[in-house]
């Protein structure tokens, strides 16, 4: 599985934190429970899931699209209304993972604002 995850990374992109488990994904049309890995890199957030029969699902989220990180509820909310909530985490530290996401989302917003004024 690590080779598959490494193949998703851009040149120079590094994994900062990751968690594996079951997540509730609410896209506004209902809640869907998904097993997989949520990866926080220094550039973006990657959802990766591998299903039986070779099926894979990858979803890329940009840090600037992140609206709210709730550590007490273990959830991420994006501008477009999508919410990801950790339900059953089998590996990784959810609190550290969410702290990493908060750091990089704030860093990306500051960088975006700085470029706007340059």
Task: Please give a quick description of this structure.
The protein is of the alpha+beta class. It has helices at residues 2-8, 94-117; strands spanning 15-26, 31-41, 44-50, 56-62, 66-70, 75-78, 83-91. The longest helix has 24 residues, at 94-117.
- Domain count, please report it: 1
N-to-C SSE string, H for helix and E for strand: HEEEEEEEH
Count, helices: 2
Query: What is the 3D shape?
Result: globular
Largest sheet: 7 strands, antiparallel
User: Can you tell me the residue ranges where pLDDT is under 50 for at least 5 consecutive residues?
Assistant: none
Name the CATH architecture: Roll
Helix- and strand-based class? alpha+beta
Assess the beta-strand content as a share of residues. Answer: over 45%
Radius of gyration (CA) equals: 14 Å
Q: Name the CATH homologous superfamily.
A: Pleckstrin-homology domain (PH domain)/Phosphotyrosine-binding domain (PTB)
pLDDT averaged over residues? 84
Helical content stands at 25-40%
| CATH fold topology | PH-domain like
Give the total of beta strands.
7
Pfam family, one: bPH_3
Protein name: PH domain-containing protein
Domain YokE-like PH: 15-102
InterPro entries: YokE-like_PH
